[in-house]
Amino acid sequence: MAVAEDLDRYESTLRAQGFVRIAGVDEVGRGALAGPLVAAAVVLPDDFDRTGIRDSKLLTAKQREVQGERIMSACLYVIRKIEPNVIDARGLHRSNLALLRRCVRALEPVPDYVLTDGFPVARMPCPSLGVKKGDMVAASIAAASIVAKVTRDHIMRRLHRHYPEFDLAHNKGYGTPAHRDALQRFGPTPIHRLSFAGVGQPALPGFD
Fold first, then answer.
1. What are the sequence ranges of the domains in the chain?
2. What pairing do the DSSP bridges indicate for beta strands 22-28 and 128-131?
3. Radius of gyration of the chain (CA)
4. What is the largest CA-CA distance in the chain?
5. Start-to-end C-alpha separation, the chain
6. Strand 113-117 vs strand 76-82: parallel, antiparallel, or unpaired?
7. Rounded to whole angstroms, how far apart are CA atoms 74 and 183?
8. Which residue of 44, 134, 140, 176 has the smallest Cβ count within 10 Å?
9. pLDDT of the residue at 201
């Protein structure tokens, strides 16, 4: 239980200050060459068992599925995504910020406070705090990372059926050597981010 209690310290501090509905928000897929950017916002009830809730990258695929189902069956949450063509048009960072805001604004009721992973996000509908390595130190952000990761993995497995040559079921759209080789052989598809180096642009020296 020490891990669960440690992950709850941000939320506990905020609850002691009178904030009731505390949301964590996180995104998955920033560095991928293909597929959407997916974000989730999650409000964990006070009585929700935090055991097993941690950064999605520290869980196996099976553990993520189990925890994701548990979170989505018991917690208030919202999932949103941004497609590659929008990322190309607006830029990754701007798209990311807009996506995180969309998630929080879609929560009903609007939370009293929001914890974001890593960097602060302006123009939230409520007070917010950017938490360094948030998905490793704040339970609500970790829960959001799990929901976002499970959702995006499902999307990438579906896309794999349409574009099997890119092995998206395994690489989830990230730039593995096999994925980059397939890009050289077959060229980018509508699900690829053309603004990313090595996709629609030449790879930068030392990054291929």
1. 2-186
2. unpaired
3. 18
4. 57
5. 43
6. unpaired
7. 41
8. 176
9. 59
Does the structural domain 2-186 have CATH classification 3.30.420.10? yes
Q: In what order do the strands lie in the sheet with 37-43?
A: 76-82, 37-43, 22-28, 113-117, 128-131
- Rounded Cα–Cα distance for residues 103 and 59 (Å): 23
Mean pLDDT by groups of 10 residues along the chain of 208 residues: 65 96 98 98 95 91 97 98 98 97 97 95 96 94 98 98 98 97 96 92 44
Using alpha carbons only, give the angle 81, 73, 144 rounded to the nearest 5 degrees: 40
65: how many CB neighbours lie within 10 A of its CB?
Answer: 16
Residue 126, token pair as written in the block: 């409520």
Q: Which two tokens stand for residue 129?
A: 């705090």
Cα 10 to chain centroid distance, Å, stands at 19
With tokens 């996180």, the residue in question is: 26
For 168, phi then psi, to 5°, come to -65, -25
